[in-house]
Amino acid sequence: MKIAVVTDSTAYLTEQQVTANDIKVVPIPVILDGNVYDEGKDITAPEFYAKLRTAKTFPNTSQPPLGEMLKLYENLANEGYDTILSIHLASTISGFVNTLRGAVSEVKNAHVIVYDSQITVILMGELVLTAARMAKAGKSADEIVAALDDLRTTIGEYFIVNDLQNLVRGGRLSNAAGFIGGMLKIKPLLTFDDDSHKIVAFEKIRSLKKAYARVEELFQTALDATDYPVKAWIIDANDPEAGDAWQAELQAKFPSVKWARSYFGPVIGTHLGEKAIALAWIRDTTTD
Fold it and tell me: Tens of pLDDT along 26-58?
């Protein structure tokens, strides 16, 4: 069995990670003032946020062309891959997974498994890396999917945003009522609901300092409930100084956690807005 691993650009993997693990990355289009940019290909994160500040309209996103996806799958089949594991951003924030699931029967000479990560950003990236490493190690598709299902249950995240407008306009916030209005002095905390896997706003915090403290408290509660090592990231939307500072504080407070940094690229930044910041974590599989 020869397994190919495909994902989309919202995994925010580095070029080195992609190349070293033979991962195929499909860019997600972002649309800004009528111009379409393929994330990670036509526009970088800093370029996107610079354009966003002077944009005349709200940005939005689209799905990669289905024909190009099917062509990619066919090309991989022609290269000798008999199984393709295509891992993508949560179906609760994009219709991409369902679009692919409805079309992959057209692919000849390869079995395509479309996997809903139920998340996005570097957390999805970790699932992708796990799948790619297992594929290179000769594991079967069933073994890989089972491992991803298990790893997915260890994911946790909290987002601090400045503005809910884009999430609400795009229909990606499932419980917007009660969180709109008076937002100038509020820092909403968001997360992916464990049951519905939808983005939900669950607390209003009166200052950024208090929001950080509340997220740290929630993180401690999550750590207390685990019996495995954890890897965590601070993820920022074009606010690297704030991200670096928060990470330094957390490294001192939680020395047993393996810390790293990541970012919200154009597609996810479209919905969260500039200066959003998050604490995200997953079981650390490097010690397995």
Answer: 999 999 999 999 999 999 999 999 999 999 988
Indicate which CATH number applies to the domain containing 78: 3.40.50.10170
**Residue where one domain finishes, among candidates 121, 152, 183:** 152
Q: What is the C-alpha to C-alpha distance for residues 81 and 78, in angstroms, rounded to an integer?
A: 7
Q: Which residue has tokens 């330094």? A: 248
> Strands 199-205, 230-236: parallel, antiparallel or unpaired by DSSP?
unpaired
Amino acid at 265: G
CB atoms within 10 A of CB 101: 16
Residue 187: its pLDDT value, please? 81
Distance of CA 250 to the CA centre of its chain: 21
Domain boundary among 118, 152, 186: 152
CA 68 to chain centre: 22
Within-domain flag for 248: yes
Dihedral angle over CA of 95, 101, 105, 110, nearest 10: 110
Q: Residue 212: what residue type?
A: Y
pTM of the complete model: 0.93
Dihedral over Cα of 287, 226, 147, 153: its sign? negative
260 three-class SS: strand
Q: Are residues 143 and 259 in the same domain?
A: no
**One domain, residues 86 and 145:** yes
| pLDDT > 60? residue 172 | no
Task: Name the residue among 210, 209, 162 with its Cα closest to residue 190.
Answer: 162
pLDDT in tens, 201-257: 888 888 889 999 999 999 999 999 999 999 999 999 999 999 999 999 999 999 999
Instruction: Report the alpha-carbon distance of residue 82 to residue 148 in Å, rounded.
Output: 20
